[in-house]
Amino acid sequence: xxxxxxxxxxxxxxxxxxxxxxxxxxxxxxxxxxxxxxxxxxxxxxxxxxxxxxxxxxxxxxxxxxxxxxxxxxxxxxxxxxxxxxxxxxxxxxxxxxxxxxxxxxxxxxxxxxxxxxxxxxxxxxxxxxxxxxxxxxxxxxxxxxxxxxxxxxxxxxxxxxxxxxxxxxxxxxxxxxxxxxxxxxxxxxxxxxxxxxxxxxxxxxxxxxxxxxxxxxxxxxxxxxxxxxxxxxxxxxxxxxxxxxxxxxxxxxxxxxxxxxxxxxxxxxxxxxxxxxxxxxxxxxxxxxxxxxxxxxxxxxxxxxxxxxxxxxxxxxxxxxxxxxx
Length: 327
What we know:
Helix 10 links the parallel strand 6 (189-193) and strand 7. A six-stranded parallel sheet has the order 2-1-3-4-5-11, sandwiched between helices. The protein has a six-stranded mixed sheet with strand order 7-6-8-9-10-12, sandwiched between helices. It has 14 helices and twelve strands. Helix 1 crosses helix 3 (30-43) and helix 7 runs parallel beside helix 8. By secondary structure, it is α/β, with parallel strands linked by helices. It has three domains: 4-47, no CATH class; 61-168 and 294-316, Rossmann fold; 170-291, Response regulator (Rossmann fold). It is elongated. It has helices spanning 4-11, 15-22, 30-43, 49-56, 72-76, 79-94, 107-121, 136-143, 170-183, 199-212, 228-237, 249-261, 278-282, 294-306, and strands at residues 61-65, 98-102, 125-128, 148-152, 163-167, 189-193, 219-221, 243-246, 270-274, 288-291, 313-315, 319-321.
C-alpha cells in the first residue's frame, strides 16, 4: 500500500512537505506542489483521512447535519438539501476534506448518530443545513468545546467564531415575494408553512407580514399533500384569499396538488414558493419561486469552515423567478 513516505521519496521532498502539499499549505511553492502531486498521480496515492484523524487526533472530515424528519425519504428527495450538500462536497473535494452525513428521525437519534461520528472520525467541524430555535442537537454540538460550526440559515444563537452562519436575507425575500404578488393585482395573500419553529420559515413569514402592512394575515399549516380536507376548510372560511406564498417549493407543490384534487382551475389562485427547485419548473403550472442559490450557500458554508477568516457570517443574494403560477 502506497504511503505518504513513498510519495515524498519519489518527489524528492520530506514526508512533512508532502503532507503539507496534501493539505494545500500556502507555505509550499507551486513548483513543489506540482512535483508532489505528479508523484501522487504516478503512485496512484489516495490518502486515508480517517486513519490520519484517528492517529493525529486532528480532522479532515466535516459532519453535515440534516434536520430531524420522521419521513427520511422525503428529506432525501428535497432538492434544496441535496443542492446544499453538493456545494459543500465541491469545496471539500478541492480542499481534501471528507464529509459524513448525520440524520435522524428524532433529536435523540440524531444526537446518537453525531456522537458515533465524532468518536469514530474525530470530527470537530460541522455544517448544519437548517436553523431551528431551541435545537437540542445544535446545543449538543456547541457544548463540545473544540467544535466549529456553520449554520446555513439565520443564527438562532449568539454568533461566535465557533458558531457562524451563511444565509439569505429571508425576511427581505419573504417581503419581496409578497409585494411581487400584491403588485400583480392579488388582493389577499395567505402564507403557507409546515413548521414555524424552523427559523427560515419564520423569517419568511415575518417578511410576508411586513409586506401586508394593514392587510389581514391568512395562515395555513400544511405538512403533506394528504390534507385536502384541511385546505378545503381553509378556503371555505377564507373565501377572500386569492394567492399563496409558500415557505418553500415542496409546500407550494403540495398545495398545488390539493387544489387540483379539489377540482379548482390551475389559475384559480396565485402561488409562489422558495428555492427555485427543478420540480417547481416541471409541475403544471410551473411555479414562480425565489432563487436562493442553495449550491452557493453550501459552497460558502464549506469555505467559511475550512479557511482562516475573521468573518462570522455571509449573505447570499436572492432573485424572484416568474413562471406560470402567478399573473
